[in-house]
Amino acid sequence: MPLCAVCGKEVNFKNVAYINGNIFVCKDCFPQYYIKNICKIVERRLRGENPLACNFCTYKKQCDAYISKTLKSLS
Fold first, then answer.
1. Count H helices, E strands: the chain?
2. Where are the alpha helices (DSSP H) in 2-59?
3. What does pTM read for this prediction?
4. I need a labelling partner for 9 at 20 to 30 A (CA). Which of 28, 33, 40, 47 fits?
5. pLDDT tens digit sequence for 3-60
């Protein structure tokens, strides 16, 4: 069985949310992986912008928490 690239746990194929090459991400870790590795708008949000697309994003709450934590660690 493949291992999740984020948490390292074994993932059966019904619980895989993302596959790219040999990278597998489980459903539980996908929001975190998406925010840190896939979403291109996160960089703009870190610069203080608030893109319209974020209003419709499924992971906005998790992203808000990530942005807040990242900005606090940079201060």
1. 3, 2
2. 30-33, 42-46
3. 0.84
4. 40
5. 999 999 999 999 999 999 999 999 999 999 999 999 999 999 999 999 999 999 999 9
The DSSP output letter for 40 is S
Joined together, the tokens standing for residue 42 give: 């996160």
SS3 state of residue 8: coil
Tokens of 64: 């808000």
Which residue type occupies 64? D
Contact 51, 45 (CB under 8 A): yes
d(CA 57, CA 35): 11
Alpha-helical regions (H) of the chain: 30-33, 42-46, 60-74
Chain segment 30-41, per-residue pLDDT in tens: 999 999 999 999
Decide: 3 and 9 in contact? Cβ < 8 Å. yes
